[in-house]
Amino acid sequence: MSKKNSAIVLGATGLVGQKVVSLLLKDSRYDAVTVLVRRPLSASMFSDPENKLNPVVIDFDQFQDYQGYFSVNHVYCCLGTTLKQAGSKSAFRKIDFEYVHIAAQLARAQRVDSFVWISAVGADATSSSFYLRVKGELENAIMRMPQLDHASAVRPSLLLGDRKDSRPMESVGQALAPVLKPLMVGPLKKYKPVEAVEVARKMVSLQRFVDEGG
User: Fold this and answer.
1) Which of 51, 58, 74, 200 has the fewest Cβ atoms surrounding its Cβ within 10 A?
2) How far apart are CA 2 and CA 60, in angstroms?
3) Residue from 69, 131, 181, 192 carrying the catalytic annotation
4) For 137-195, how does the pLDDT look when each residue is reduced to its tens digit (9 = 90+)?
């Protein structure tokens, strides 16, 4: 019988995070899925017939105090915001860099099998774009972290899917996606809009399943 795995998901109420949690709850390789959230989950958000889900409300400003929850096989970090939603560059950096970096540190301390997080296409620590520069700095910080050997970033372009929050530029992009996607080939392929569920599936595929010899 295959070894069962446990996972923790951060950003579980976001566009990709919801898809990740739904996939894990249906995945027979997992028997426990913990989600760390700012506020209680809606009872209708996820279908959990096997009672795998363990939602835990935490204070992200005291994130480092929740190390014990990272005693799992896999960490899925789907935390992220926009400059507009964050309200300032420092607030954006706190969520998109500091929280994710702390998550990686907690994962390393608990010796997880693997850690996967969401970056962005074009992430570059030398970019003139603040958004892409922060994403690139985070990639460098995590990938250079000692004793976190199985860390992977996914780099999606425009995410397609239904959001609860308003993101006007993404709404425009989603409306244009059917026209733009066929034109984005060759070097432009990486900028092609992608469905959130496809990003979630990619994250699952990047995890290291020890019993599978990964």
Assistant:
1) 51
2) 34
3) 131
4) 999 999 999 999 899 999 998 888 665 555 555 555 455 545 555 545 455 555 678 89
Asked if residues 159 and 118 have their Cβ atoms less than 8 Å apart, the reply is no
Give yes or no for a contact between 25 and 52, defined as CB atoms under 8 angstroms apart: yes
- The token pair that represents 203 in the structure block: 């994250």
8 Å CB contact between 143 and 102 = no
Per-residue confidence at 214, pLDDT binned at 50, 70, 90?
Answer: very low
Query: What's the confidence (pLDDT) of residue 166?
Result: 53
The question of whether 76 is a catalytic residue gets the answer no
Q: Which residue has the tokens 């400059």?
A: 83
For 30-54, give the DSSP string: EEEEEEEESSPPPTTS---TT--EE
pLDDT at 170: 53
CA-to-CA distance for 91 and 95, rounded, in angstroms? 7
Which position among 19, 30, 52, 135 bears the catalytic label? 135
The verdict on whether 131 is a catalytic residue reads: yes
